[in-house]
Amino acid sequence: MADKDEDLPRDAKIVKSLLKSMGVEDYEPRVIHKFLELWYRYVVEVLTDAQVYSEHASKSAIDCDDVKLAIQSKVNFSFSQPPPREVLLELARSRNKIPLPKTIAGPGIPLPPDKDTLLSPNYQLVSPKKRPSQPMEETEDEDVADPNPSQEDRTDMQQNPQQRVSFPLVKRPKS
């Protein structure tokens, strides 16, 4: 194990000692590489921001104040403080003053009203009203719909408007 520690770069040894100081004893070796990648990416972003701040201030080199400003802006952008406990308690009190809606207690899981579920009728069937006075004769010519209905057929359609019928879905018993 000591040979492995000697082969590691200095930064990897620092990450390993940080993990050990936090009580992390068992981890995969790739964890160290991931922490190093995160660490390097963070440092590059902070130094790039510090360079931008230095150039904006017309300085020839980055100084400590630029780095502090870059770190502070990164912290302000990345992390947010939760509201104080008193504010949260007041919000909870005001929210809890409103009672919950009454539920219809029944066996099983309480469901929302039928209109909001898939249990209510969910489709409509349009069927024309048929005239019982005329007998229906089946011929081969009637199988094809007439694209140009006669004037008599048009008035018949206007007198007998289409009727909408909806059907609820019913579960069939399994055989």
Automatic annotation (TrEMBL):
Signal peptide: none annotated. GO terms for biological process: RNA polymerase II preinitiation complex assembly. The keyword 4Fe-4S does not apply. Keywords: Nucleus, Transcription, Transcription regulation. Residues 99-175 are annotated as: Disordered. It comes from the Eukaryota. Its main location: nucleus. GO terms for molecular function: protein heterodimerization activity; RNA polymerase II general transcription initiation factor activity; transcription coactivator activity. Gene3D superfamilies: Histone, subunit A (1.10.20.10). It holds the Pfam family TFIID-31kDa. SUPFAM superfamilies: Histone-fold (SSF47113). InterPro entries: Histone-fold, TFIID-31, TFIID_subunit_9. It is found in: Nucleus. One of its GO terms (cellular component) is transcription factor TFIID complex. Belongs to the TAF9 family. This is Transcription initiation factor TFIID subunit 9. It comes from Acacia crassicarpa (northern wattle). The lineage of its organism: Eukaryota, Viridiplantae, Streptophyta, Embryophyta, Tracheophyta.
